Amino acid sequence: MDAETAWPEGVSDGLLLWCEDCGTRPRFDYRVADDFWLEHVKGDTRFGVVCLPCLDRRCRGVGLAEALLEVQWTGTKHTVVLKPTLLHEYEEGAHRGS
After folding, report:
1. Tally of CB atoms within 10 A around 40
2. Which of 21, 23, 80, 86 is buried most, with the most CB atoms less than 10 Å from its CB?
3. How remote is the C-alpha of 95 from its chain's centroid?
4. pLDDT tens for residues 12-60?
5. Half-sphere exposure (Cβ direction) of 81: Cα atoms closer than 13 Å
């Protein structure tokens, strides 16, 4: 790969690292707004990996939908970047039929 076709910054190259919170290897990479990341991921963990479900637990679901910039899925020799187009929020318990 030459300098003109270098891998885009912030796009997963398929490297798999363990989540700092739960120890699993995330199935998807993602990017969130920097201020959101800094608010919810403290200390040295900030330089590691926190999977999307664990980040959701850290923020208790507040603000993540707005802060999510993209979700990335890496396959064989390619990465697909998915960008949010719709935001849906619900009242607590509403999705459980209560």
Report:
1. 22
2. 21
3. 23
4. 666 678 999 999 988 888 999 999 999 999 999 888 899 999 999 999 9
5. 11
Residue 11: name the closest of 76, 80, 68 by CA.
Answer: 80
**Alpha-carbon gap, residue 43 to 58, rounded angstroms:** 14
> Cα(46)–Cα(49) distance, rounded to whole angstroms?
8
Q: In sequence order, what DSSP letters do the residues of 54-79 get, joined into one string?
A: HHHHHHTTSSHHHHEEEEEEE-SS-E
Q: Please tell me the number of Cα atoms within 13 Å of 63 on its side-chain side.
A: 12
* Alpha-carbon distance values, 22 to 15, 16, 19, 37, 49 (Å): 18, 14, 6, 17, 10
Q: Read off the tokens for 15.
A: 């490297």
Tokens of 48: 């590691």
* Cross-sheet strand order for the sheet of 29-32: 29-32, 68-74, 79-82
Six token digits for residue 4:
């003109």
